[in-house]
Amino acid sequence: MTTSIRNITKHREQRYSYGLTLLREEMEKKYPMPKEEDVGKKVVLKGEGINLAFGGLQALMDINFELKEGELLAIIGPNGAGKTCLLNVVSGFYHAQEGEIYYRDRKITHMSSHGIAELGLCRTFQNIALYTGLTVIENLMAARHPHIKYNFLSGMLYFPWASDEEVRQRAICEDIVDFLEMEAVRNQVVGSMAYGLRKRTELGRALALEPRILLLDEPMAGMNRDEKEDMARFILDIYEFLKIPVVLIEHDMGVVMDVADRIMVFDFGRQIAEGTPDEIIVNPKVISAYLGAEYAGV
Amino acid sequence: MEELLKLIVLGLCMGGIYALVAVGYVVVYKSTRVFNFAQAAMITVGAYALYQALIIWSLPIWAAVLFTLAVGVALGLLVERLLMRPLIGQPILAPIVVTLGLMLMVRGVVLMIFGGQVYGYGEHFLPLGAWHVGFLTLPMIQIYAFIISMVAIFALIQFYNRTRMGLGMRVTHEDHVVAQNLGINVKRVFQYSWVIACVLGVISGMLLGNIQGCCVELDVTGIMAIAAILFGGLESIGGAIVGGLTLGVLQMVTIGYLAPIMPGEPIMMVPFAFMLLILIFKPYGLFGLVRIERL
Amino acid sequence: MAIHRPCGTFDRTYYEAKAIFRTRLQWGMITALILALYGIAFVMNDYLLGLSIVIFSFIVAMLGLQIITGYAGQISIGHAAFMGVGMYVLACVEAHLGWSWWVGMPLAGIGAGLVSMFFGSPSARLKELYLAFASLAAHFIIVYVISNWETMTGGVDGIWLSRPEPLLGIDFMVEHNYYLLVLTLCIAMIYLAKNLARTKLGRAFVAVRDNDIAAEVMGINIFNTKLLAFGIGGFFAGIGGAMYAGYNEYVNVEFFPLNDSIWFLGFLVVGGFGSIFGAICAAVLWKLLDEMATLMTPVFTEILPGLAFYVTASFSLIMYTLVIVIFLVLEPRGINHRWNIIKASYRLHPFAY
Fold first, then answer.
1. ipTM > 0.90 (yes/no)
2. Under DSSP, is residue C265 helix (H, G, I), strand (E, B) or coil?
C-alpha cells in the first residue's frame, strides 16, 4: 500500500470493510499467512510433560498437547480441572515445575509474559481483567503497545510521526470495534459497562495484540443463547479471516461440539481424552467424568 | 561485652515502646485494612494530654492518666466516625492521605496550643533514678516503660483471643461485607479497633513523653515503628512485638558501635535503612500473610 | 468520562477525534490565556511575580507526582525529596563545577530522575502500601544523606546559587525576566506531560495502574514501565526544583521537609488523579493556601496575641488537612472530576446526561 497515512480513513470508507481488514494487513506485513498445505498438520504450539503444583496441590499432571496450524482446539472439563492453569502456564504467568512449551519450535517456557505476548500468544481472561479506568477504545490502544513503533521520547515531543502513528493505530482499533459491533460504546469507560460488553472488549483486546494463536478462557461464560451465538460468530470469523489457530476453554457442550475441530478433556489436572467431537462424545472416560461412572457403561 | 549487654537491655526497653506503638498500627490494619499513619500522632497527643493534666492542672497521677486515656478514647471515636466512615470503599490511597494529613494536623494543633518548646514531667509521673543490677545501670523510667508496655500488650492479646469482639475483629479483617452478612456489627468492630489503637498510642505517648520530653517531634518515633511492623508482618500482633523489640535492640547496638563513625544522627537512619532492607528482601515480614494473585 | 464536544462539532477524522483543542474558540481561549500570562509579567509587582514563579515551579513538580502516582499508580510519599535532589544537583553543579544554570537545570532533572528510579526499583515486587513505606524511607534517607554529606552539599548550611546567566541579552536578575523564563519552561513541561499522557507510554502507565498482571500478560513490560514512571516523574520534580532554587538563589534541606512530601500527595488527591489539569489545580491551590497562611499572620497577631508565632506554622498544617479531608469526603475524585461535570452539564444543558 503506497497510500499516505493521512488518507487512511478515506481509503477505508472507499473499500467494503469486511471485518478486520486493517488488522490483517498489519499482521501480513510482519509475517505471511499460513500456507494451505500446513493447515491441520504443522504444529505451532506444543507442550511436553507439564507439571504444575501449588504447594501440595497438584494442578497439572504430565500434560502433553499439540496445537496445529489453523485448527480450533477446545479444552473442556469440570471446574477445577486445571484448564485455566494450563493457559496461565502457556502465557508465562505460572511457572511449571517441569515441562517445556514450544511455540513454532522455539522454547518459550521461561520467557517473560510480555515477551510471549509479543510473539503472538494472546489470551482472554476468565474473570475479566480489563483496564477499568480506560474507555473501550483506549483499552484496545493500550493492547497495541508492543506494536507501536515510536519510543516515549518522541511520544512526549509528539513529533508528526508520533501523531501519525497514533492515528494509524486508532484506525486499526476502530476496525476491531466495528468488527465486534461495539461502535456505540467505544467511548464508554469499561468499569461501568455491562458484563457481556466487557467480555467482548476482552476479546477485542486480545485481537488488538495481533495474535498468532488466540487463547480464549471461557469467553461465553454467563451469557444467554443470543449472546453466545454472537460470540461464537466472532470467534469463527476471526478464525477464518485471520487464519489463526484458536484454543477455546468452554463449558457449553453445544458450542464446543459445533465449533471445535479437536477437543481435549481435562479432569483433576490430567488429560483423560483427546480427539474429534464425535469421538469424545462417546468416550466412556469423558462420560464418567461429567455424568458419573454409572452412565459410562451405557 | 558489658557494653553490648547494656546496649541490648536499653534496646529492649526502647523496643517495648516501639512494640506498643507497632501493635497499635497492627490492630487498626487487622480489622479495617487501613494503615493508620496517624498512630504516630496519638503519641504526641498522649504526651501532651498528660502534660496538660499533670503539670498545668496539677491533678494527681491517677486522674491525669485517666484523663489521658479518656482523650485517647474520644479521639479514636472521633477519627473513626468523622474521617474513616466516609472513606470506606475508596481506593487505598484515600485513607493513607487522610491519616498522613491527620498526623500533620495534630502536629499543628499541638504547636498552636503549647508552642514549640520541649516540656518535661520532672518527678511527677515515673520515678527518676536508676537501678544497679550487677554491672548494668538501668534507668527506672525505661524499665517502668517496658513493664507497662508489656502489660498493655498482654491485655490486648487476651482481648483478641478471649472475647467475642476480638473474634469479630479477626473476622472483619478478611472481608467487611462477608462479616456483616454473618451478623458481626462491623461498625462496632471498627470503633473498637480505632479506640484500642488510640489508647495504645496514648499510653506509649505518656511513656515516651517521660523519656524524651514533650516535643512536637515525638511522632517520628511512630514512623520509625513502621519498620517494626514490616519486620513482623503487617497483620501479626506477635510479629509487631518481635519487630519492636528487634528494632529497639538494633537501634541501640548500631548507635553504640556506629555512631562514632557515621556523621549526623544515625539514630534516625537505622529504622529507615532497616525498613528498606526488609522491603527488599522480605516485604511481607516474618509472620505476615502473603497474598497470591490470581488471574 | 466521555469527552463532550461543543454542540454541533463532530469529529470526522481520527486527528480531530484525538485533538485536545478542537474548535477555533478553544484555540483562541488557550492562546489568550498564554498571552495574558506573558503580558501580566510587566504589570505585576515583585511579590506577585515571586508567588507566580513559586507556583510554576510547584506545578512542574506536581506534574511529576501525577505521572508517578496519578497515571502509573505507584504511591510515592517521597516526592519532595526528589525535588530536593534536583535543587541540590543544580547547586552542587554550580558551586563545585562552576557550570551555569542552563547546563545545571537538565542535569538536575536527570539526577532527580535517576535517584527516583533507584528508589522506585522496589516497585517491581511491592504493591501499593509497601511501596508507600519504601518511598517514605526514601525521603528520610535522602534528607539524611544531603544533610550529612558536608563536602558536597554543605550540610545544613545550604548552598548559594545564582540566577541563570543572561541569554540573548536578557538579564535574569530582573524578576519579570525570570518569571517569563519560568513560565516558558512550565508551559513546555505541561506540553510534554500532556503528550506523555495521550501516547503509548501514558496508556501503559494507566494499564499498569489498573491491572498490572493483565498488563504484563498483554505485552507491557511492567517493571520497565514502573521504572520509567519513577524516572520521568523524578525528572519533572528535578526541573521544578531547579526552577525554585534559581528563584531563591539558595538551597537548604529545610526546603523539602517530610510535610511537603505529604502535602504533595494530599493536594494531588484534591486535584484529581490521572489528569494534567488536576495536577495544575493542585499546585496552584496549595501555594495559594500557603500565601494565605502567611497573609493571615497579622490578623492572628491581633486575635491571639502571644501565640501568633506558632499560629502561622500550625495554621497551614491544620488548614491543609481540613481542605484535603473535605475534598476527600465530598468529592473524592478531585477538582478535575468536578470541573468535567460542570463542563458536561454546561454542554448538555438542559439535558441531565
1. no
2. helix
User: Which is it for strands A262-267 and A72-76: parallel, antiparallel or unpaired?
Assistant: parallel
Contact C205, A130 (CB under 8 A): no
| Ramachandran area for residue A212 (φ above 0: left; ψ -120 to 50: alpha; else beta) | alpha
Regions in chain C scoring below 50 on pLDDT: none
Q: Which residue has the cell 473474634?
A: B167
Task: State the amino acid at position B165 in one-letter form.
Answer: M
In a domain, C17, yes or no: no
Is it the case that residue B291 has pLDDT exceeding 60? yes
pLDDT, residue A13, reads 43
Whether A170 and C18 lie within 8 Å, measured CB to CB? yes
Q: Which residues of A touch B295 (CB under 8 A)?
A: 84, 88, 93, 125-127, 129
Q: How many residues does chain B have?
A: 295
Domain holding C56, by residue range, is: 49-348
Grid cell in block for residue B256: 553504640
Where exactly are the structural domains of chain A? Answer: 1-32+132-210
| pLDDT tier, B141 (very low <50, low <70, confident <90, very high otherwise) | confident
The alpha helices in chain B, defined as continuous H runs, are 2-32, 39-51, 61-78, 93-114, 140-162, 164-174, 176-181, 186-212, 219-232, 237-258, 266-281
The burial class, CB within 10 Å (0-12 / 13-18 / 19+), for B274 is buried
Contact residues, C window 254-283, toward A, CB-based 8 Å cutoff: 274
CATH of the domain at C248: 1.10.3470
Name the amino acid, one letter, at A210: E
| Coil/strand/helix, residue C297 | helix
* C203 contacts A141? CB cut-off 8 A: yes
Share of chain B above pLDDT 90, in %: 4
